[in-house]
């Protein structure tokens, strides 16, 4: 694109492709969390539902953060299309396990973009991505804590477990 309003791109092309892939991943994560929120909401697991609604919002914020970063630095952010997500889950524990798996995938992907940015000398992206590296470590830690908690309360009624789930 060679319009006058277009700024010179200071980001690396390969990194921009990976960032666009990341945009799709964050959108997909948001959709997954919304489906999880729905499952919990339908069973009146209020805290868990709040937790997943909040996660769905946060993932959308992550998506927008990357989206704006790409456009603000002269790249072309691509509007993401989320594909089909699971709506059926075996249990509350299964949902949090699926959530941990998804977070681990996102962490791997963030690390990959980070490494690429460093390798090609795209310092703007590298610095931008530092926030995401920290965020992913915190996200994983949070889900692991919840899974520990669920493990300890395994024999308790679901509603009582739900009461101890943090709402965000
Ligand atoms: Fe995220
Ligand atoms: Fe996340």
UniProtKB/TrEMBL annotation:
CDD domains: Nonheme_Ferritin. It is an enzyme of class 1 (oxidoreductase). Fe cation binds at residues 26, 59, 62, 103, 136. Its EC number is 1.16.3.2. GO terms for cellular component: cytoplasm. Keywords: Cytoplasm, Iron, Iron storage, Metal-binding, Oxidoreductase. Residues 9-154 form the Ferritin-like diiron domain. One of its GO terms (molecular function) is oxidoreductase activity. GO terms for biological process: intracellular iron ion homeostasis; iron ion transport. It holds the Pfam family Ferritin. It is found in: Cytoplasm. Signal peptide: none annotated. It catalyses: 4 Fe(2+) + O2 + 6 H2O = 4 iron(III) oxide-hydroxide + 12 H(+). Belongs to the ferritin family. Prokaryotic subfamily. Iron-storage protein. This is Ferritin. It comes from Tenacibaculum gallaicum.
